[in-house]
Specification:
The structure holds two protein chains of two kinds.
Chain A (H helix, E strand, L loop, with lengths): L2 H12 L3 E4 L3 H9 L5 E3 L7 H11 L5 E6 H6 L2 H9 L4 E7 L2 E2 L5 E2 L8 H7 L4 E5 L2 H11 L6 E6 L13 H12 L2
Parallel strand pairs in A: 1-2, 1-3, 3-4, 4-8, 7-8
Antiparallel strand pairs in A: 5-6
Chain B lengths: L5 H12 L4 E4 L5 H11 L4 E4 L3 H13 L4 E6 L7 H11 L3 E6 L14 H13 L4 E3 L6 H15 L2 E6 L1 H4 L4
Parallel strand pairs in B: 1-2, 1-3, 3-4, 4-6, 5-6
Chain lengths: 185, 174
């Protein structure tokens, strides 16, 4: 599966969830798969999508918060797994699109191409609901488990790279304001 | 509580009066006084330790998006770890936070650790360069009002704003 196919496979499952997308290709594919008010697209702050998701999950414990991260981005902020493991937000679902490369910057290898295992790292940090998925059937089956088993979840989805075809608005304040409006409902 | 430094009690009262109930931080020695006051006297304030200051700002951004008023506390050295979060998330998205920076190396003639001096000198110019309004706390007694005013202004204007706690106040000369 490529990242866009995987993102599309989750579009209906998102429901009313807050979805935070890491900058670059994960955000572009989320926008292409289906723009919605409850999507928060980051355009910078590489590595912080999981932290933003953690803060939001703490602020609104009754809302499911889904983070669409990248392997390169999570590698930049591995400490986030330790904090998530400490705080244990039951409503946080961290999905890592692991294509084993820096897709937005030209396809350089990440450490996951050479043995780094982000699911094992999550488990080692005290996150108990961890899965690695390699195809769309495994992804959707794991998403169904998320509906009934409390988090925090870390799902490492092995995906292939695809070239995104559209991008969200560059009006950051608009992204923020419509997202916050959705978070007030 | 008389056992707490006046400045630390004022910081807590000020951030609380500004409506902040979430403090995300990377600790340093003077800030431990603030954390002790929060623990003993502010049961409604949630504190969260981050592994790194940039992560603390990410968590704070999420708290704000969820309707909260976050405070981020860090040592001056940690501003260097935070700049990309501030410049590519807080400033362009207009995400506010009350930032409390415990200074080291701001009075460099008495700073025993030379590793603290370059950033101690650079905090204010860096804040200016990246559009973070800031003020240096003038006295221990001014802490409550200063923090409250900065916090209220930050959340009213959707700007991250900082209060710098000078070393001469947090660790007064003996």
């Amino acid at each position: 599966m490529n990242r866009l196919e995987a993102t599309r496979a989750l579009s209906k499952w998102f429901g009313d969830d807050a979805v935070i997308a890491s900058l670059g290709h994960p955000a572009y594919d989320l926008f292409t798969a289906g723009d919605r008010d409850a999507n928060f697209y980051t355009w910078g702050s590489m590595g912080l999508a999981s932290s933003i998701g953690l803060g939001l999950a703490m602020a609104q414990p009754d809302r499911r918060v889904v983070v669409l991260d990248g392997d390169g981005s999570l590698l930049m902020n591995l400490g986030s797994l330790a904090t998530i493991g400490w705080v244990q937000p039951k409503n946080l679902v961290l999905i890592v699109w692991d294509n084993a490369l820096y897709g937005t910057t030209g396809g350089q290898d990440t450490a996951t191409a050479h043995g780094a295992d982000l699911a094992a790292a999550a488990g080692a940090m005290g996150i108990r609901a961890v899965a690695t998925v390699r195809n769309l059937d495994e992804l959707t089956a794991t998403a169904a488990r998320v509906d009934t088993e409390p988090g925090p979840w870390v799902i490492v989805a092995k995906v292939s790279e695809n070239s995104p075809t559209s991008k969200p608005t560059l009006d950051y304040v608009l992204i923020k304001e419509r997202f916050m409006k959705a978070m007030r409902q | 509580m008389s056992s707490h430094p006046v400045w630390a009690a004022g910081v807590c009262a000020g951030l609380h009066a500004a409506g902040s109930r979430h403090v995300v931080y990377v600790p340093d020695n003077p800030l431990s006084h603030v954390l002790r006051v929060l623990r003993e006297q502010y049961a409604d304030v949630t504190t969260t330790i981050a592994t790194r200051e940039e992560e603390a700002f990410g968590i704070a951004a999420g708290l704000y998006l969820g309707g909260k008023r976050p405070t981020v506390m860090l040592q001056s050295s940690g501003l260097g770890n935070s700049i990309n979060a501030l410049t590519s998330l807080f400033v362009p998205y207009k995400i506010p936070a009350l930032i409390v920076i415990s200074m080291r190396g701001d009075e460099d003639a008495t700073e025993w650790n030379p590793a603290q001096i370059p950033m101690g000198r650079a905090v204010a110019p860096i804040c200016d360069a990246i559009q973070i309004p800031h003020v240096t706390l003038a006295s221990p007694e001014a802490a409550q009002q200063t923090l409250e005013e900065i916090g209220n202004a930050a959340f009213a204007s959707n700007q991250a704003r900082a209060c710098l706690l000078p070393r001469r106040i947090t660790v007064p000369p003996k």
